[in-house]
Amino acid sequence: MESFRKDVVGRLLWAEPDPNTRFKYTIWFDYTRKLVNELREGDLVAVPNFATDSNGVRYSILQLVTVMPRHYALGTDIKDLKSYPGFVMQAAKSASADWTEQETESYEDTTKIICEAVPTNLEYDENNNRIQPERAMAMVGKDVYILTSEMTEKIFNRGINKDVENVIIVGNLIRDRNVEIYVRVEDLIKTHFGIFGFTGVGKSNLVSTLVSNLLSTGQPIKIILFDLMDEYTGLLIDQLLLYNGKIICLGEKTLMKPVFECVNRDSTDLDFAANTFLKNLLLPKGLKGEKAKFKPLIKELLQNGRIKILEERFTKTVEDFLNEVWPDVEGHLRSSIKKGKLNKMKEDVFGNNLKDELTPKLAQEFINKLGFGEFRSQSIDSVTEVLKDSDLKERIQYTLIEPLKQVVESSETQISENAKIDMKEIINDLNDENKPNLYIVTSHDPQKVRRFANNLGQYLFWNRRLKGLISPLVLFIFDEADQFIPGTPRSESEKLSKSVIETLTRRGRKFGIGVGIATQRSAYLDTNIMGQLHTYFISKLPRKYDRDVVGEAFSLSPEQFTQTFKFQKGQWLLVSHEATGIDMPIPIQAPNAEDRIREYLKVFKHESK
Fold this sequence. Notes:
Strand order of the largest sheet: 9-8-20-19-18-10-17-16-11-15-12-13-14
Helix content: 25-40%
Largest sheet: 13 strands, mixed
Number of helices: 23
Radius of gyration: 29 Å
């Protein structure tokens, strides 16, 4: 395998210390128009380093962060343009010919391609044909070689064995589409990731692609996507149908009346409901012209129970409710003394109402008796005894109080058995190791989405913690993440969503739970949570403060952001501490999710996995 291109050689001319990247290097290449169109920020180059000895050459692998053609007849600084205008204009006119005439061969000493580069902290040992940690800095004055496609892929995917590890392809190298970039699925999910880019760069498209790739691995991966803007049904409709996905609506008001009546079996006018749904379906610009083709898919969602309404109305007795939740309350508790305390509390709080219907009013009374309500009842000795124990208090809070709060917020509307879903069913699905699942959570009320995110996240975390479950992998994705984890929460629901995301990013890994976030305003996010993300996808961030927040969280230098200014839609700077083969920014072109959906529209035959 050829390691370096033989047709182009540059020169390392300068090195200086840098607090972010160890060193910053300056490289010159002789200018040709062909080469200036080939070189890209993010490209890898090799330079002999000071570890070279009689046994062979060792090459430091550097990454270009800026690429700029320069004509020295015009000076070396913008201040040189302050010379006599006639001279400057004549020099510029003369220089312009040099740009176009040097197509494939450089013959003017005044034209150079100036590149800034930073170390990847890897080196190539030519004698052993091995890539290894860098032992010494690159030598100034030495030749600089551009890596071949094969060598580039070997470095960017270093240490990843795609035949053994569970990996997905997240995209191709922007400069060289022959180079595929892999990420490890488990590390991507369990160490959490963030997607940061301004409006129009393709955040939703990338989320759709990642969801599709993860679900197609053959592993029973579970994905819950919290969709405040109701924009993912169209972008993930194929995945909903292929992988027994569900749209979870928080309250019947989330759906338009004809759609709700169809889902709830109050109406048999499927065509009218599908047309109503289709009329309000949000699609990206590239798919709007094919909107009519979505109607059969929407009918499939409506007919086969893919749209569910969270069970908010309870008609159970207190005894039935306790029979459901109490196994989770006790969990794997081994202490007979603690079990005794819990059962004494259970008798004192619920004993007189076991045969009563659990109404919202009665549920609130129980919350007050248990010491978690705004208006607490007179203290009960057994409750006080339980709350003194921090472990028992946490069990009560997340396995008993949260379900009671759902009852308090429940609706009076009768939801049919076919249409409703409850928290326990969702948790069972998320713990089922037999198949992948996709849930898209949406509501007419953003506060409901944030509260549900807290309830589901806490319930799943404590359910797995108490039962010792670590699989299957579960990924919580929060679009418009600044609405879930603001630096300064303004509402109670924002405090709740921020709290659960903080819990999952800090402690979820141990139980197979990961978090993904997407936002255009990283500056508004909680910085502690930002610091827990180990994989970043970064595109254009016009506001400097947004770039500073992302850069500080991932120790990126301002120069490493430069290439994102030139990015087109679907192009991302991928940086990961663990999921990729190299701990360096990788400029990738992600697949276009719209192409995947168009193909599905062509072959859809009412089939699902």
